[in-house]
Structures are given as structure tokens and as C-alpha cells.
Amino acid sequence: MAANMEELVSGTQALTVKDESDLDLDSVEGFRKSLKKKISQFACGLGNKEDDENRYSVRSSQSSSSSSSRDFAENRTAFVTAELKTPAVPVDPKADVYDFTCEKRGLAVIINNEDFSQCQDFDDRPGSTYDESSLYHSFQRLGFNVLLHRDLPGWKMVEVLKAAASSYDHRNADCFACAILSHGDQTWTEREWDRLGTKTRLDLLFGVDGRAVATKFIVELFSDNYCPGLEGKPRLFFLQACRGSKLDHGQELPVIRPRYTPGIRPRVREMGDGPDRASGGIDLPDISEINSPTSSSVDPPEFQRKLVDYTDASSDGDAGPSEDSGQLGNTAERTVADDVDAGWGFTREVPVSPTPLYKDCLVMYATPPGYFAWRRSTGAWFVQSLCTVLNSGMVHRMSLVNLLSRVCGLVAHNFQSQNPSRPSMHEKKAVPVVESMLVKDVIFTRKQ
């Protein structure tokens, strides 16, 4: 059993790769060779033919302390349901719909960073195992070849994505999908050409070593320049991570509702891929509450972030903001208020957030720029809502943008944190954000 668990954690969850004993997976060259072997199996039709039951039954025994093997098995069974038998809707080839008649659906990459025990600046992300399982089966049901990796340092995250862009045969595929589950934050960088000192906002995703990779660089790896095989095809990114430390307090509405009575509804502890946790949310399969310390994906002010150079993952260059992102955002807000009170009409520094997207790309974030992303012991609000929609029969007859609007509705209407003991984290809301530069509709028509 121990050997099996070691094999899973090494990054062979979605594929079985032979003769890896002679490869040094801690070196850049050895890790690259391992990735090429895995991706090459998709071309031979060997990918994704493992026994899912065996894979996830082994994984459940090493999941976080917030879940047991039985809890995990019941949760997985709840999400892997029989697909609704809805008739395929013919698509007019002349309509503004992406061509999904290729031989393969395409490659879907899942990176789940849950174990941050080797990094003192971040806590673990219990509950992310459920998101991983749900995403894996949702992508597989849609016909994707799934490449799954867990607990990667920053440089390995870059190597996995670079290999996915260059080693897979995208020319015979409909599209590409990528889901990254990790801690996240934001930073600002000054534009060298801007004499006014305007600062550009960047989203960051962290590896388990605490190294950060900018979201815009990940998207750029799959642009037409770097991945010509995807030219004219949709590229879909789903990111479960914080984008700052702000909290959505929601909008109060005067409505009449029954008086709340403690003890009527069971509570499920919730966390966030951000600076704190709260509890509450909609009902999902029951799981025992966790008693571990709260998780954080926003590091303390004195911690200097280290960005991974995505052009050369073998050398990690130091590049980070001069100020803590959370403090800078709060400073900007106070400056606006102070200047208005003093009679000023504008501020001297205005952070900007250019959209890190390209043609035929869609990026869906769990939360707006600068805000906290919520997660609980049975999965993240955003990911579980996404998989609920992708598993429905609507996915084969409705455009992806409409489906993602329903995901936003599920998160906005059905989730709210509950933590009366901590008013700052109590009754908070969230809504995902879709940034799309798709030029046509995406409809996952059924494969023969």
C-alpha cells in the first residue's frame, strides 16, 4: 500500500508510465522526460485506462485529516453519477460555433496543490482532494485525455504546462482545458515605459515550495505563438485560488424570512484559498468537521514572494512586489477616501489590471480580482458548482458561456460563510469571474 501511495503522489495518477526508475524526477531533465512519456501514451491510446476505483481508493487513505476513506468514497460516488441520456443536438457548421469534429476532444491538465507541509509560509488545503476527483471525472466524461499531477513545486508546474503545450497532438483535438487548484495572491509591478508610475496587477499561483507563477504566463504558454496546434481552437482555464485578501460582504436586502434557530441545520466547516476560513454553505455529503488550524494562501507582509521564470524553469529568479499586495490594496482604498474628503478629484497611483487573455481563450476565476476564494472540507464552492453543471445533460446542448453563467449563479445564490465567532469572516459571499476572449460558441457535442 505504501508503494502504491508513493507512486500516486509522484504524478502518475492519470497515466501509468513504465521504466521511470531510471529517471531523476527532481531534476529538470528527468522530469521533462517523464512528462513526454506520459503524454506520448495518449497518442497510442493508452491514457486514462487505469482502474479509477483502485486509484482513488488508494488516494483516499492518504487524504487530509478532514476526511476518512468512507467519507471520500461516498462523496466521489455522489458526483460520479450516470450521465443523463439527452439526444445530441446537430450543430450547423456555418454557425458561429467552434469546430468540435476532431478525432479527440483534447488534453485536460489538472494540477492540485494540497500538501504545503514543506513550506512554512502556507498551510495545507484540506478538501482539495474532492475537487480533484470531481474535475477528473467531469473532464473524462466530456472525452478529454486527463493529465493529473499533485503537489508540484513552482518549476514543475511550469514544466507540466510547457510539456502539455508542446508534446500533445493538439492539431487532432477540439480544444484544451486546464484546472489549477492552489494557493494564490496578487501583486503589482511598475510599467517600465510608464513615466506616471502606473502599476500593473498580476494574479499569482503558488507551488508547494512557495514559488509563484503568474497566471498571465500560464495562459501565454498556450497562445498561438507558443502552441500553434491550438490556433483557432478554444483554450479553457479554471483557477481555484485567491486573488487577494478582500472579502465580499454582500448586499443586504430587506426580506421577510423565518427566524433562525440554532441546531436545525448542520454546519460544514469552510476554508479559503486566502488569508482565513469560515464555516457554512449549502448541504453536500456529510463529512466530519476538521479541527486543524486555518489555511492561508496569502502570505504575511514580511514574506517576499519568488516568481518562477516560465521561460526557463531550471533557474528560479527572484521577482516580487515591493509592498504586500493586501496592504497596497487597502492603501489605495484609503487614499481614494481621504482625497475625496480633502477635495481632491483623483489619486496619484492607480493600479490597473489588464486582462491576461488572448484570442480563443477563456479564464474562469473562483473570485474577482483582489478577493478571497472560499473552500471547505468537502471541496471549493467554485469547483463543486462547476462540476455540477458539467455533469448535467445541458453540457452537450448549451454553449459553454451560458453554462458558466449558471455556475456563477450557483455560487452566488447557494453559498455563504457562517462563522459567528469571527464577525470579519461571517456571512460572506463570493461569485466567480469569467474573462472570455472566445470568438465563437463552445458546445461539447457528443463524440461517437
TrEMBL record:
Quote the biased-composition stretches of kind Polar residues, using this chain's numbering: 289-298
Q: What Pfam families does the database record attribute to this sequence?
A: Peptidase_C14 (PF00656)
Q: Where is the Caspase family p20 domain?
A: 104-246
User: Where is the sequence biased in composition, kind Low complexity?
Assistant: 60-69
Q: Which residues form the Caspase family p10 domain?
A: 351-446
* Annotated Basic and acidic residues bias: 267-276
Region of interest (Disordered), ranges = 47-70, 259-331
Q: Which family does it belong to?
A: Belongs to the peptidase C14A family.
Q: What is this protein called?
A: Caspase-7
